Amino acid sequence: MEFTIKVSGMSCEHCVARVKKAILEINGVSSCEVDLKTGTVKVEASAEGLEEKVKEAVREAGYSIT
Q1: Would 44 disulfide with which of 13, 14, 31, 59, CB 3.0-4.6 Å?
Q2: Residue 29: pLDDT above 90?
Q3: Pseudo-torsion of CA 46, 49, 52, 58, nearest 10°?
Q4: pLDDT average, residue stretch 23-49
Q5: Contact 50, 26 (CB under 8 A)
Q6: Which residues in 19-57 are b (16+ Cβ under 10 Å) and which e?
Q7: Residue 49 Cα to chain centre, angstroms
Q8: Hey, what domains does the chain have and what are their CATH numbers?
């Protein structure tokens, strides 16, 4: 399963690394690509229903879902 979310508040490579780390810690997420320019995060997950967990992890890392 693959999905893309829009994240706001990222301004540098440190932000990208923080978001990526938070997402990759979720069981079932196999990869993620964070694009600072577009503010998008593309996630590859092995199970359905992980999108909400990913969004919550991004929020807990200090960023907003738009």
Answers
A1: 31
A2: yes
A3: 0
A4: 95
A5: yes
A6: bbebbeeeeebeebebeeeebebebebeeeebeebbbeb
A7: 14
A8: 2-65 (3.30.70.100)
